[in-house]
């Protein structure tokens, strides 16, 4: 699903996200979706894709109707159904155990008869529906819930005048009790938290906009620009103007290994980086160890807020995070997220922010030279129009790399000038759904195959099924020995300044030596 696409749900709809992330508009509400989310949507709803791009979304789409049996009349009539919580849609986070059980169940069904499979499908459907009706447990005491309400209020109204009395009323406790409990929970008095929050937002404005200090002061709740400057200096140790000039002296925590790789290439060493051990390529692992960057290990698609808080960073940066996670991190540090996966754009953006334009330009020249040298080596293949395809084998199907996205897509089809099979040119996403028939029709001269690496799911069975099929054996690339197996951690998650050079070497070696 690509940005701008609109889908109408004429039936009740269940969607399970098995890979990636996205931002949708469901009936006028912006919704951030990620791996493990289960979404129930009532009939006659619409879903608009606001952000898909290279966020790698995949999952199951199930439609159903509800009926009632009228025993007296002996008839069946359509019955109303509504999501238990929410208005027209509901989102539930499935547990790792539930996701693993799905994979195990689907693998077991391969040996079942038709009737047994039907029962299993019904059990699976009711298992999903049951998760909608589970009441969330909470171990938070009433006072803590009240403090969290007051924090949410601060984050929504930080640009307005807010008093401790007002916050205590929102929390439902006395001012004295509120201040004491707030300090225990957050480590600082409530008005200090509010001041820090405002300064974090000011730091973001200074980096992301060209607004004056006076305009920024008013925007974040300071009427007096001189008082704002004093508070800013008290908090950041320097004036707003000097803050922008000395960003490279700040402690940076990257929630993206790719961003950390680019920063290190520019001479900016992050204090810490969030990584998923399964998906970190070898060159990044060695790079982080060499420069003493602390690696915060987390499961795939998860952001551990507690880890980040413990590091006490001065800047948090990375790619996509959900709005809910962003809200929780905004009290920790200024956040620069939503950054691209395109290494060239990252180079220039970081070069500008950290005053490393000269280093960024030098690295860009080196990367251009590497690409030009590769084009020379591959000139005969490029000129012949021989097609190159990247096929992803996933636990529940197949996808192919589109020709109009960022990262390795842009490297292969734009910068190196390799040809995508014509039948696949319509794919607008980063990775697009692909059937075995589509693969046969594309029949590429050269085929790179990625066996998707994921936690909770395994693509081995689909890989085996693919290679045992008759259509696979008839592919030109298979018959000519032009099939090459690639690593998710490098090609998908590691295409940085160093990683891109490694990928280019793999492409040249594979195509030239065969």
TrEMBL record:
Keywords: DNA-binding, Transcription, Transcription regulation. GO terms for molecular function: DNA-binding transcription factor activity; sequence-specific DNA binding. Residues 148-246 form the HTH araC/xylS-type domain. Gene3D superfamilies: Homeodomain-like, Nitrogenase molybdenum iron protein domain. PROSITE patterns: FE_B12_PBP (PS50983), HTH_ARAC_FAMILY_2 (PS01124). Pfam families: HTH_18, Peripla_BP_2. This is Helix-turn-helix domain-containing protein. It comes from Paenibacillus agri.
């Amino acid at each position: 699903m690509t940005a701008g696409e609109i889908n109408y749900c004429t039936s009740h709809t269940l969607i399970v996200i098995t890979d990636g992330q996205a931002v949708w508009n469901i009936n006028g509400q912006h919704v951030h979706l990620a791996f493990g989310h289960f979404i129930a949507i009532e009939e006659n709803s619409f879903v608009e894709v606001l952000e898909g791009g290279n966020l790698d979304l995949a999952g199951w789409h199930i439609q159903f109707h509800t009926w009632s049996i009228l025993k007296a009349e002996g008839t069946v009539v359509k019955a109303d159904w509504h999501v238990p919580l929410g208005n027209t849609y509901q989102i539930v986070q499935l547990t790792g155990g539930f996701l693993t059980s799905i994979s195990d169940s689907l693998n077991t069904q391969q040996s079942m008869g038709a009737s047994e499979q039907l029962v299993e499908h019904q059990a699976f459907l009711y298992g999903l529906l049951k998760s909608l009706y589970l009441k969330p447990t909470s171990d938070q005491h009433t006072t803590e819930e009240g403090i969290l309400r007051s924090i949410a209020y601060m984050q929504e109204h930080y640009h307005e005048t807010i008093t401790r009395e007002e916050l205590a009323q929102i929390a439902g406790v006395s001012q004295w009790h509120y201040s004491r409990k707030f300090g225990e929970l957050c480590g600082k008095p409530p008005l200090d938290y509010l001041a820090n929050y405002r300064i974090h937002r000011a730091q973001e404005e200074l980096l992301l906009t060209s607004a004056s200090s006076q305009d920024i002061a008013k925007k974040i709740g300071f009427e007096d620009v001189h008082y704002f400057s004093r508070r800013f200096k008290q908090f950041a140790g320097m004036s707003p103007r000097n803050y922008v000039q000395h960003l490279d002296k700040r402690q940076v925590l990257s929630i993206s290994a790719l961003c950390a790789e680019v920063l290190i290439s520019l001479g900016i060493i992050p204090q810490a980086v969030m990584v998923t051990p399964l998906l970190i390529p070898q060159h990044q692992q060695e790079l982080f160890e060499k420069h003493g960057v602390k690696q915060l290990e987390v499961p795939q698609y998860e952001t551990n807020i507690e880890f980040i808080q413990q590091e006490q960073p001065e800047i948090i940066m990375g790619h996509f995070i959900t709005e809910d996670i962003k809200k929780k991190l905004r009290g920790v540090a200024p956040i620069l997220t939503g950054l691209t996966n395109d290494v060239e754009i990252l180079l220039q953006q970081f070069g500008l922010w950290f005053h490393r334009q000269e280093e960024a330009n030098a690295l860009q020249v080196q990367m251009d030279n590497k690409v030009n040298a590769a084009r020379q080596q591959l000139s005969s293949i490029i000129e012949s129009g021989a097609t190159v395809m990247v096929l992803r084998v996933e636990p529940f199907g197949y996808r192919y790399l589109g020709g109009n996205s960022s990262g390795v897509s842009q490297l292969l089809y734009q910068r190196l000038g390799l040809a995508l099979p014509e039948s696949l040119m319509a794919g607008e996403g980063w990775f697009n759904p692909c059937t075995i028939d589509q693969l046969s029709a594309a029949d590429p001269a050269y085929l790179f195959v990625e066996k998707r690496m994921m936690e909770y799911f395994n693509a081995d069975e689909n890989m085996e099924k693919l290679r045992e099929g008759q259509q696979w054996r008839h592919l030109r690339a298979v018959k000519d020995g032009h099939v090459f197996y690639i690593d998710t951690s490098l090609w998908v998650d590691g295409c940085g300044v160093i990683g891109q050079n490694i990928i280019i070497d793999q492409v040249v070696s594979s195509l030239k030596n065969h």
